[in-house]
Amino acid sequence: MTHFVLSGIFVYPVKSLAGISANSWPVTEKGFQHDRKWMIIDNNRQFLSQRKLPRMALIKTALTDQNLILSAPGMENLSLPLNPADGHIINSTIWHDQCDARSVSTEADQWLGDFLKRDCRLVYQPDEVVRPVDPDYANPADKVAFADAFPFLIVSENSLAALNDDMQLNLPMTRFRPNLVVSGCPAYGEDSWREISIGAIDFRLPKPCSRCSIPAIDPETAQIGKEPLITLNRTRKWQNNVYFGQNALHNQCGRLTVGDTVQIKSTGAKQPPI
Q1: Strand 67-71 with 201-204, pairing
Q2: Long-range pairs for 29-34 at CB < 8 Å and ≥24 separation?
Q3: pTM of the predicted model, to two decimals?
Q4: Per-residue pLDDT tens for 196-208?
Q5: Which residue in 47, 152, 227, 255 has the fewest CB atoms around it within 10 Å?
Q6: Mapping DSSP to helix (H, G, I), strand (E, B) and coil, where does residue 176 land?
Q7: Bridge-partner residues for 207, per DSSP?
Q8: What's the N-to-C CA distance of the chain in angstroms?
């Protein structure tokens, strides 16, 4: 059995805002605790992301025992309770999913609207709301918060190193917004993984992650560049999409810690087959 190492953990409390790097983090039924528990929606109750609003990249997130804290250039920090006591249900749309969410506060809506320069609302997913994962790729019990489709995204350090070598650039891993980073495996080794364990938690990897324009947005400036999409189109294109990293589903709750052993339990044909 092949062994590698978990070298990075990233949590994204608010969908499409900046994430948090952690050394250790709890895993719940829906993925990492607090991961994509909040989301910004427009007046049509559609989710907003950096695809439409690159300035979202400039909003930093932090978590304390009691609060979610948002910060952005030129703005006073906004502190919000981790478990809002009230708010009303808003049926919101994430891609093709309709999902109940709960409003947070007019203060949060105003803060975000002022910075993003458009009307928007901050909502969160109460613990009792169940959003199932696409049954084509998941078991009936699999759940997810406001991530695009899956609870976890896995990328290996050497895949990014190979991509950077192809580009002759040095883009950071944060461009690709993974939850789990693995070291020690060959570049794009994760393309063939089907079942793995990290520490005491087992994962299934049902499909590769197709990439949109977000990796082309500099998370420090919100400026949009041409890479990595040009190189991914040349090296990682399959069925009219480009792929980087693997989506993953977990079989147990628990805790993951940087340094945990990653064991590859089963493999299959490379996805994408490149």
Answers
A1: unpaired
A2: 29/143, 29/253, 30/131, 30/143, 30/144, 30/145, 30/151, 31/144, 31/145, 31/147, 31/151, 31/152, 31/179, 31/250, 32/151, 32/152, 32/179, 34/63, 34/68, 34/82
A3: 0.96
A4: 999 999 999 999 9
A5: 255
A6: helix
A7: none
A8: 24
Instruction: Give the rounded percent of residues in the chain with a pLDDT score beyond 90.
Output: 95
Please name the residues in contact with 76: beta carbons below 8 A apart, sequence gap of 6 or more: none
Q: pLDDT for 180-231, tens place per residue?
A: 999 999 999 999 999 999 999 999 999 999 999 999 999 999 999 999 999 9
Q: What is the DSSP-derived secondary structure letter of residue 66?
A: S
Q: Which residue do the tokens 């938690």 mark? A: 201
Structure tokens at 261: 């052993």
Enter the tokens of residue 129.
């709301």
d(CA 206, CA 191): 10
The amino acid at residue 62 is: A
**Residue 1 pLDDT more than 70?**
no
Cβ proximity of 208 and 246 under 8 Å: yes
